[in-house]
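I am still learning, so would you mind making up any protein sequence you like and the tokens describing how it folds?
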Amino acid sequence: MNLIQRYITKNPYFSDGRFLTDSGFDGFFLHSVGCNQPDPLVFLRGWDSASHTGAGINGFIGAEAVYITAPCLETAGTVKRMPHAGRPANDHYIGFEMCEPRELQYNRNATAFTVPEEALESAREFVTATYCNAVELFAALCLFHGKDPLANGVILSHREGAQRGVATNHGDPETVWNGLGLPYTMDGFRADVKSKMEENEMTTDECAALIAEAVAPLNEQLASFEARLTACEDKLKQLQTGMGFHSERISALCELAGTQSTEILQCSALTEALRTALEALIDGMDERLQTALDAALGPMIAHLKDAPKWMRPALKELLEFGVTNGGTPAEVDPLDVNKRQAILEAVLMAKKCAERYTDSLLLPTLDENGEATT
């Protein structure tokens, strides 16, 4: 499945601030567009407009690609509400539209279609491709959000929603499948989604390996910077020791001469000025080294509250699972982080990738060698 994010940000429902979460998020609707337009981009251009007030959607499914049009694979248990099927379905489900082949010839009211005999096979191939993409998409959605596709009411067609009295009176997508003589049914679709999920399941060890692989290059880069910083600190200490030696010699000369001559006072003043300049230089080098470290790996995030807002929910899960910890015992401060932002971003990226392929990700605790512990 070629999954492409192309949000319809100009659609009035995209920016209304309404999301479906947790117990209020029941599942997913499968639609068919109801016209012979095979290109998802045509719909994207039409729906990505402030004047498109009739409906919203979370994605369009084509034969070659799936376009995600509103957030639904960003935060587990939370999706953007986009009205697609009437109420109350709009308040509990998100929807996805499958495009239809150009060979379909709808009647004036778009209630039925015919297909020329010579175009029938081509039309079936197109619909088969959209069906397969829909199976992969819904498997990814169920894995990411922890939904069972075989559970009652998790995956519905628009037709099934109407039969349950929660959606407007439509018959898609079954009308397209039946009209082309294809063997697809919603029960079969749900079973295919379940099978695809089982194919994509990852073991705990695989998840741990994925995270370790993502973090390893950043750990190496951090170790290199720390080694360079230590070397610079050693050289600065040598300089400080040398300055102290010269200062002690001048003091000894003063005592030996038993005088406070102008020349010796000037030497003492010069030594003190050099010491002050050196300390300023040391402070400046420390600041530049810190700046270089921040530029390469991002700022140090000491605590969960210091993390960017978008990062906090997923980072909190990692802290709770013990995947990362800032060194403070969890019983003292469970939200201690003490990691560079770039390392955390890599861990979260690996976490999101893993969550898309498992319905219950249990991240292992890693020992000091990066090995998963039991």
Notes: The chain has two domains: 3-199, 204-355. The longest strand covers residues 27-32.
